[in-house]
Write a structure and sequence with these properties.
- This is Amidohydrolase-related domain-containing protein.
- There is one protein chain.
- The chain has 137 residues and is mainly alpha-helical.
- The chain is 39% helix and 9% strand.
- A hairpin with a 2-residue loop joins strand 2 and strand 3.
Length: 137
């Protein structure tokens, strides 16, 4: 599922709770407007809110990481940090910019911090990227 693509193309509001299959979140710049993980997570939240459903930060983050690997039936190979798994990782700053910093400062728990990150973060939050264990950014 790429909410950025669905929104840009006007292809409808995805019924996540009603999906008869495992849902993964990713980017699709061919139809969307960004490759940014946090922007796509934020768009997923907004689409579900328009449908009257609430998408938790944990559900969204899982769908973009471990859940995506499981949906592809690759959970033993990718999607986690277990010994023997291949991992491509991004390290993110919680908050960049005054609005995100102010929101992060009042977060009451980890879920609220992740939610603020997924709805307010962008490429400025990216601290590092590792591909197959090698730092690339």
């Amino acid at each position: 599922h790429c909410p950025s693509s669905n929104l840009f193309l006007g292809s409808g509001l995805f019924d996540w709770p009603g999906a008869p299959f495992a849902v993964s979140l990713a980017s699709d710049v061919g139809g969307g407007t960004t490759l940014s993980l946090p922007r796509n997570l934020g768009d997923a939240y907004k689409v579900q809110a328009l449908r009257g459903a609430r998408l938790t930060a944990w559900t969204a983050l899982h769908a973009a990481t471990r859940g995506a690997a499981e949906a592809l039936r690759l959970g033993d190979e990718i999607g986690g940090l277990s010994v023997g798994q291949t991992a491509d990782l991004c390290v993110w700053h919680w908050a960049q910019g005054p609005v995100a910093a102010a929101r992060d400062a009042v977060a009451r728990d980890l879920h609220e911090r992740v939610f603020a990150w997924m709805t307010l973060a962008d490429e400025r939050n990216l601290a590092a990227c590792y591909v197959a264990g090698q730092r690339r950014v």
